[in-house]
Amino acid sequence: MLKKLIILTISLLVIIAALIGMSSKEIFKQEGYFARSSNGLNVGSYIDFALPNQHDEQISLSDNTKKVIFVFAKSTGHTVKQYLAAQPSDFLTSKDMLFVADISPMPVAIRNLMAMPDLKKSAYSVLLTFEPTLTKPFMDESKKDKIIVVTLDKKQIINVVYATNEKELIDAIK
Q: What is the pTM of this model?
């Protein structure tokens, strides 16, 4: 009995290792994506980007986009995700709003096996910065644990609000 259990455990570990190995390749194509900012996520800064969403569709910032929600930490991403899950599926588009989440620190295997399948179930689009070069123009280390909501006028930031919970997020996107 013990011998069978050991063989089963080893077999399971081999299968898990093989799955992790197969899923450790980047799933996003590398070309065509960009992120630019003239001065970070600060009032007066011009921003522009073309990023993949969870379905690997390229989404570009439009002159008509009014607000963008940025998250750079797992906990703030969960806060936004929980709020958006309770909204109608067209909530973001009806408000000319985008949601950008930084997944660059996440190991590729974890991203492919766990995060992406979960994100693909979302009724709304999540734009993803999957490598540090896409995150750098927007990331401020001192504010990475905040939900950052920027209001735009033709890609120029005219207001920045920081939120730490759902109530503050709701106030920021009004």
A: 0.83
Q: Give the CA radius of gyration of the chain.
A: 19
Q: Residue 100 pairs with which residues in a beta bridge?
A: 70, 127
Give pLDDT tens digits for 39-60: 999 999 999 999 999 888 999 9
List the structure tokens of 4.
């069978």
For residues 93 and 67, what is the distance between their CA atoms, to the nearest angstrom?
A: 10
Six-digit token pair at 82? 């929980």
The whole-angstrom separation of Cα 35 and Cα 49 is 4
Question: Is the CA virtual torsion 24, 141, 161, 135 positive or negative?
Answer: negative
CATH number 3.40.30.10 given to 2-173: yes
Buried b (16+ CB within 10 A) or exposed e, 120-141: eebebbbbbbbbeebbebbbee
Q: Report the distance separating Cα 12 and Cα 31, nearest Å.
A: 36
For 130, list phi and psi in degrees, rounded to 5: -100, 0
